[in-house]
Amino acid sequence: MTITKTLTDWYSVNKRDLPWRRTKNPYHIWLSEIILQQTQVNQGLPYYEVFVSNYPTIFDLANAKESAVLKLWQGLGYYSRARNLHTTAQYIVKELSGRFPDNYKALLKLKGVGDYTASAIASICFDEVCAVVDGNVYRVLSRYFGVKTPINSSIGQKEFKALAQQLIDKNNPAEFNQAIMDFGSRQCKPKSPDCSVCPLQNDCQAYINNSIANLPVKVKKTRVSKKHFNFLVFISHDNKTILEKRTQRGIWQNLYQFPLVETQSSIKYNEMKSHLKTFPITNNGYDRLSLFNKEDIIHKLSHQHLHTKFWIVEIEHLPKQSILIEKIRDYPVPVLLSNFIEAFNF
């Protein structure tokens, strides 16, 4: 029995009943694939359902405000996915009359769509024989065939893509792609997979050579940087505060935040008082400065760790650009700030 048939047989018995598997609508498939980038199914499923409920067609998504899309995305992270989702929806509606490209090469031209997503949409929606390669696929193939080429190298990406393309079921590419991804997610797990019930056990090179924990191979990650963030949470006598839109490029682009003071190291009360003197808002003084969290809140991102303090600044008046505190949850904010807003309980 070949690995291809073994995987599709396994999938026929073990596949999960997920809403995007009940359709070939490219809008729904595209939406699910973008959400599931860097996100596990159990976390992404509620977001998918909310997006489909709020934006049942690509026309609805294209007509939405970006801030509304970012608000629905809040908590998923990697916010560029949401911005690209919105931009691509507008492009498809305006330039393609709402019709998705129907092949891999054309799909690749869409913003936010790479090899994996284009392959998934092309195979699932249009039966194109185009193999998907994601983290789950890398893991299954590297272990089964004993491939030690780093999966995050350009050579490795080409090697695994070619291998997956050789194995794909040409008569049912959609079924095979979903089978190998599901198998990697549920059976060939990253840590401590249950090899005793694995249908690929007899021919799996990683199992035979006791190298499961060592595969797949990755080259060392970029060094993670450390930053110190101090958010100023202004609260006026008439229950207003200040949120600023982050317009510069970055992971939090177009999200909102409290005024930020970035420092070289963790600072104390008197140092924060000195920083406050540089804010025009506090030219006429303020009532009280207090620290919400005694210990830094450490928010870990893929490339940096944010050591964060939230400083509460009670003040009599705030300028016109302030917002009512009761409206604060209407704004899309990073999960770090969302968690604070809930904990502070304005």
UniProtKB/TrEMBL annotation:
<keyword id="KW-0408">Iron</keyword>
<dbReference type="GO" id="GO:0000701">
    <property type="term" value="F:purine-specific mismatch base pair DNA N-glycosylase activity"/>
</dbReference>
<dbReference type="Pfam" id="PF14815">
    <property type="entry name" value="NUDIX_4"/>
</dbReference>
<dbReference type="InterPro" id="IPR003265">
    <property type="entry name" value="HhH-GPD_domain"/>
</dbReference>
<protein>
    <recommendedName>
        <fullName>Adenine DNA glycosylase</fullName>
        <ecNumber>3.2.2.31</ecNumber>
    </recommendedName>
</protein>
<keyword id="KW-0326">Glycosidase</keyword>
<feature type="domain" description="HhH-GPD">
    <location>
        <begin position="35"/>
        <end position="186"/>
    </location>
</feature>
<dbReference type="InterPro" id="IPR015797">
    <property type="entry name" value="NUDIX_hydrolase-like_dom_sf"/>
</dbReference>
<dbReference type="InterPro" id="IPR005760">
    <property type="entry name" value="A/G_AdeGlyc_MutY"/>
</dbReference>
<keyword id="KW-0479">Metal-binding</keyword>
<dbReference type="InterPro" id="IPR011257">
    <property type="entry name" value="DNA_glycosylase"/>
</dbReference>
<keyword id="KW-0411">Iron-sulfur</keyword>
<dbReference type="Pfam" id="PF10576">
    <property type="entry name" value="EndIII_4Fe-2S"/>
</dbReference>
<keyword id="KW-0234">DNA repair</keyword>
<dbReference type="InterPro" id="IPR044298">
    <property type="entry name" value="MIG/MutY"/>
</dbReference>
<keyword id="KW-0004">4Fe-4S</keyword>
<comment type="function">
    <text>Adenine glycosylase active on G-A mispairs. MutY also corrects error-prone DNA synthesis past GO lesions which are due to the oxidatively damaged form of guanine: 7,8-dihydro-8-oxoguanine (8-oxo-dGTP).</text>
</comment>
<comment type="similarity">
    <text>Belongs to the Nth/MutY family.</text>
</comment>
<dbReference type="InterPro" id="IPR023170">
    <property type="entry name" value="HhH_base_excis_C"/>
</dbReference>
<dbReference type="InterPro" id="IPR029119">
    <property type="entry name" value="MutY_C"/>
</dbReference>
<keyword id="KW-0227">DNA damage</keyword>
<dbReference type="InterPro" id="IPR003651">
    <property type="entry name" value="Endonuclease3_FeS-loop_motif"/>
</dbReference>
<keyword id="KW-0378">Hydrolase</keyword>
<dbReference type="Pfam" id="PF00730">
    <property type="entry name" value="HhH-GPD"/>
</dbReference>
